[in-house]
Amino acid sequence: MNKSQSLTKNDYSKIAKLYDLDFGKDKMNFDKYIDQMITKLKQQKLENGLIVDLGSGPGNVVDYFLSKGFKNLTAVDFTPQFFTMLKKKYKGNKEVKVASSEMIEFAKRQKPSSVVAYIASFSIIHLTNPQLKHLLKLMNKTLVKGGYFGASCYKGKFKGFEV
Q1: Average pLDDT for 77-89
Q2: What pLDDT, on a 0 to 100 scale, did the predictor assign at position 93?
Q3: Whole-number Å distance between alpha carbons of 124 and 152
Q4: φ, ψ for residue 91 (rounded to 5)?
Q5: Structure confidence at residue 149 (pLDDT)
Q6: For the sheet containing 143-155, what is the strand order?
Q7: Which residues of 46-65 are buried (b: 16+ CB within 10 A; e: fewer)?
């Protein structure tokens, strides 16, 4: 973990509860990329495969997939407070696994062609360019044929949405 990621982990640890209150139920722009991904996964009959939410935070993406009938989800977050929230939230839910891990380390542990989709909502911005390149290579290796990667981030100083 680089210094920037360490600072990010520390900062999110301090604001996890507030972040959950602000964004825990947020579905902003899910129609612009997650709904499209859901449609494609169902068309290709991949809806039963593993879907990984990288940088899950309070779990709003996982909740959305659950509401759409998906049953093989993993929420990944490296912030201890979010991990604790997610473990509590999904306790007893056999459809969701929770992992306390940095994104690259999690992707390294996945078997080739074992994931149907990765989602990274506002999380990959915390990676350096070399780390992002490495993560993308790992995702390419672990995604099934026809699998998907969806990411969202803000663009520019006015926080326009970019998918």
Answers
A1: 88
A2: 96
A3: 9
A4: -55, 130
A5: 92
A6: 96-100, 73-77, 50-54, 115-121, 143-155, 160-162
A7: bbebbbbbbbbbbbbbbbbb
